[in-house]
Write a structure and sequence with these properties.
With about 250 residues, the chain is α/β, with parallel strands linked by helices. The protein has 6 helices and 13 strands. The strands form 3 sheets. It has an 8-stranded mixed beta sheet with strand order 3-2-1-4-11-6-12-9, sandwiched between helices.
């Protein structure tokens, strides 16, 4: 009997038009979809035909989890679990490829698309530390260990990884990274072509809007240093990755 495949998402009322595209892309690929509503009063129309396959949760009942609401079900989930975001576009083979990567790594890794790998020296400021950053739409020619995943592009098997929602808002990527470290689970960005996952345009979002979240990120970066050295591909390939993705 096939193991269950479940995806979970947290979404904002202002992104209901983006949510409909995500639901259309992901729902046919999974057995069940969990949706955390961060401020909604009504069920979006895109979900109404699918309520037999969807579990709904509301911030009014669980508190202001914000984006971390997508982890509300993760501790009790069984089988393959994916967390997704409402500002990404996922391909038709997204789930199958993520599961294939989980199995390729013997279920001992959290698999991601968007990810970051810290280089030395790691500084006190997250955005000033040298790193390889693999955006959702960037090509990656090999599976690569990373320190920090994008929490809207992660997948794992519940045999080896359990995670609860974070109570530190807007730090979900770091929350996944630190939880994986505590459980001795690797984080691996999977090989994929350019634009396999695409970003949807979010009106009104600016980097400046996240400025007040940076001190918490820097604190976590410092508190959990040193970050472990990660397995690397061969020198020439690593040099090529640094040339194309370093910032």
């Amino acid at each position: 009997m096939a193991e269950p495949v479940v995806a979970s998402i947290a979404t904002l009322p202002a992104r209901v038009h983006l949510l409909s595209r995500v639901v259309a892309a992901i729902l046919p690929q999974v057995d069940h979809l969990n949706v955390f509503f961060d401020g909604h009063e009504n069920v979006p129309p895109c979900l109404l035909p699918h309520l037999h396959k969807v579990t709904l949760a509301y911030a009014a009942d669980y508190g202001a989890l914000h984006g971390s609401g997508k982890f509300l079900w993760a501790e009790k989930s069984v089988g393959y679990h994916l967390t997704i975001d409402d500002d990404l576009l996922y391909p038709p083979n997204y789930v199958s490829q993520m599961i294939a990567a989980i199995e390729r790594h013997q279920r001992r890794a959290v698999i991601c698309v968007l990810g970051r790998r810290f280089l030395t020296p790691i500084l006190k400021d997250f955005y000033q530390s040298p790193m390889l950053g693999f955006s959702a739409d960037a090509e990656l020619v090999v599976d690569l260990h990373v320190h920090l995943p994008g929490s809207g592009t992660v997948a794992w098997h519940t045999d080896t990884f359990k995670i609860a929602p974070s109570r530190t808002p807007f730090q979900d990527d770091m929350h996944v990274a630190l939880t994986a470290r505590r459980q001795n689970v690797s984080i691996i960005a999977l090989a994929r072509p350019t634009s396999w996952v695409m970003t949807q345009e979010v009106n009104g979002f600016t980097t400046a809007a996240m400025a007040d979240k940076i001190p918490n990120l820097n604190r976590l970066l410092r508190e959990h240093a040193p970050w472990p050295a990660l397995p690397a591909p061969n020198n020439q390939l690593l040099k090529d990755l640094i040339r194309r993705h370093w910032r």
